[in-house]
Please model this.
Amino acid sequence: MNFVRAESALTAVAAEHPMLQYYENNEIKGPSAEILKLLLLQSELQAPFELLPWSRAYNTALNRENTLVVSMIRTHARENQFHWLIKVSELVRGFVSLNSRPENTIQNLEEAKSKTTVVIRDSYGYHSLVKLGFNEETNLYVVSSLKHGIALFLSGKVDLIFADPNVLTDFFAEQQQNAQTLFSVLVLPETRRDSYIAANINTESGILEKLKRAADKLRTDPGYQYYLAYKALKED
Model:
């Protein structure tokens, strides 16, 4: 996926996510990537789009003007650090354990604290767990990418993974395996959040106004509504 024009002042970044934006045949695809494309077409802007480790993507969008970040959860702490343009997905987080390791099945938060949980560095999930009393010294294993986290989880090097359960469902479905028989989930309802395309707070006013007008028009567009509901459609 390449929305590039050489003279474009706008860039876009995101972390790779197997259900939202991901590489396929050397292109960036996925429902959130398609919403970005619709937003750029509607605003008559163009931007190169790059997938980075989450911490790097976040810090790039936070510190570099005229930068969009795709699929970032909207939180109180981030509210005034970005311009929030348009929702791309609804996310939930939970502790996932393998049924092949029943000793790691948990029933509550306190039991989770006695296990080792892998989570992505500087992610919404990471900060949520820290607020709940988890820390890297005792029960968190921090990685830079979801792919790395899943590999550690499946190899048994950690007890739990804190992630969107649908990601694991999708992962096993691609391998033609029944996810319901392979893992168990303790969902934290308070982690239910919307993720957005957001712009760096210092984005040029002319660019920002074009993006905001485009986002306003896009909310009623059937194509946008389709990609916003795409994950739910897959789950049905």
Summary: The mean pLDDT is 89. The chain has two domains: 11-90+193-235, 94-191. Residues 11-90+193-235 form a domain with the D-Maltodextrin-Binding Protein; domain 2 fold (CATH 3.40.190.10). The two ends are 27 Å apart (CA to CA).
